[in-house]
Design brief:
- This is DUF7745 domain-containing protein.
- InterPro entries: DUF7745.
- The protein is mainly alpha-helical.
- It has one domain.
- Helix content is about 55%, strand content about 10%.
- The chain has six helices and three strands.
- Strands 1-2-3 form a three-stranded antiparallel beta sheet.
- Strand 1 and strand 2 form a beta hairpin.
- Helix 3 packs antiparallel against helix 4.
């Protein structure tokens, strides 16, 4: 919670997909604070999902002038590479959806447990 600066997460709300979800490009623009040209240049297609390579996020973490955005990109990277690794070395579109929900103070715990249970069954 300290890394994501979400001290007031509403524990009574479970993670769920919203009907009107912004596009992957818009969510990445919001999280990284970069332009649509920068984000569009690095979006890749892996299997059936869109993603962004970790190396591009790493470079952004090292060079971004805004400290808050550095922390946001770092936290997104942790979620994408450690908690929900789908494509090796890439942060998946689904992770940005979860990260976008964190900004609305919705707890990620149920989805993390569900994803862990699903991956253990696989």
């Amino acid at each position: 919670m300290a890394l994501l600066r979400c001290s007031k997460i509403q524990v009574d709300k479970a993670y769920s997909r919203v009907v009107n979800v912004p596009t992957f490009l818009k969510k990445l623009m919001n999280i990284t604070g970069m332009t649509d040209q920068w984000v569009a240049a690095w979006i890749k297609q892996k299997a059936d999902n869109k993603c962004i390579p970790w190396r591009n996020l790493k470079d952004l973490i090292l060079e971004h002038p805004n400290t808050n955005k550095k922390v946001d990109v770092f936290a997104l990277s942790i979620y994408g590479l450690v908690v929900f690794p789908k494509a090796l070395g890439h942060v998946d579109e689904v992770v940005t959806d979860l990260f976008d929900r964190l900004d609305k103070r919705v707890t990620p715990v149920p989805v993390i447990l569900a994803e862990t249970f699903r991956s253990l069954n696989a």
